[in-house]
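TODO from last week: model DUF2158 domain-containing protein.
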Amino acid sequence: MSELKTGQVVRLKSGSPKMTVKGPDGDAWAVQWIDRNGKLQGDSFHADMLEIFVPAERY
């Protein structure tokens, strides 16, 4: 995943809550999410650690 876009919803490949891309942060991407307690959290991750979130289809 070489190019992410601000506002895209992503997850860590190893599993995580849904996170929103804020933008590039050096050689990583800044993201933010709401934790279980309703608090806004943020961090930066290398693009190789992230995957675009695709919601499951509902039947």
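Done. The CA atoms of residues 13 and 50 lie 6 Å apart.
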